[in-house]
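Q: what sequence does this backbone want?
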């Protein structure tokens, strides 16, 4: 696919905005890039998914360098990465199957199966995460915080004590299965998994918000590296598109990481929710047009 100067400029600006948000919230930003590239810039969904996976490496690396990451932060991400590794392979394989499938005929006209599956999955996921984040922030302001660590008490051996959980014993198989789910959605949707990782680390495992941001960033980097290789193998990556995204995204992530350090935990969660709902609204507009006859 060829890109003119105007489209490349718009792509770089989109990458800068997404990179900024990635640095603030500790997410990779692929869940924003894919809808923006597909819906606003008209880029085929499989190329948008591949570019989203590859582009995350720049902002994720920059965000990590902007924060103080020690060796003690690596234990949890490496355990979760075991499941992520398998999940990304499976998710990317499902995307490849839908890419080669016939178009689906809707009232608004024929739509590629890959675009339909990816956008509808994104819509459901973003609505769920965004509404939950807003509800949680509201409960926090009312001094009625939601209980954390929903699966931290599950004792399926072998077990591990991790620094991020302040001495709490966690099940390694549960962490791996959590990573498997994150990896599957990452491979299918081209996102780095931060959209699920951040609330998952906070509410499922009981991490504090800023600890979850750091853990999310580390896992995001691992996911992005693997997904880049897999999508390159499936010929879903356009280097010109990725270069434009990296140009804007890397600078944006640096600014976002510094800005995120100044925000309180409640502010981070509430603004994360608004961001997810905004992306869901954009996708809902596109999906709605698919079902409306011209």
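A:
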């Amino acid at each position: 696919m060829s890109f003119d100067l105007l489209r490349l400029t718009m792509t770089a600006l989109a990458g800068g905005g997404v990179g900024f948000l990635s640095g603030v919230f500790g997410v990779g930003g692929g869940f924003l890039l894919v809808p923006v590239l597909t819906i606003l810039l008209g880029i085929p969904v499989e190329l948008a998914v591949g570019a989203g996976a590859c582009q995350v490496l720049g902002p994720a690396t920059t965000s990590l360098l902007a924060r103080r990451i020690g060796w003690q932060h690596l234990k949890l991400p490496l355990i979760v990465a075991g499941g992520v590794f398998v999940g990304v392979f499976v998710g990317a394989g499902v995307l490849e199957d839908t890419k080669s499938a016939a178009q689906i005929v809707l009232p608004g006209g024929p739509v590629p199966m890959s675009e339909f599956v990816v956008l509808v999955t994104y819509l459901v996921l973003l609505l769920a995460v965004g509404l939950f984040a807003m509800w949680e922030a509201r409960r926090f302001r009312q001094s009625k915080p939601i209980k954390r660590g929903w699966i931290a008490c599950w004792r399926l051996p072998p077990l591990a004590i991790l620094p991020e959980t302040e001495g709490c014993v966690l099940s390694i198989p549960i962490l791996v299965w959590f990573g498997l789910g994150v990896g599957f959605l990452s491979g299918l949707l081209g996102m780095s998994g931060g959209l699920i990782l951040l609330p998952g680390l906070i509410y499922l495992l009981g991490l504090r918000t800023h600890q979850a941001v750091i853990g999310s960033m580390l896992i995001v980097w691992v996911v992005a590296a693997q997904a880049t290789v897999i999508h390159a193998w499936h010929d879903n990556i356009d280097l010109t598109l990725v270069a434009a995204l990296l140009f804007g995204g890397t600078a944006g992530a640096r600014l976002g990481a510094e800005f995120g350090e100044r925000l309180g935990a409640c502010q981070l969660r509430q603004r994360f929710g608004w961001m997810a709902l905004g992306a869901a609204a954009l996708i809902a507009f596109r999906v709605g047009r698919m079902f409306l006859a011209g």
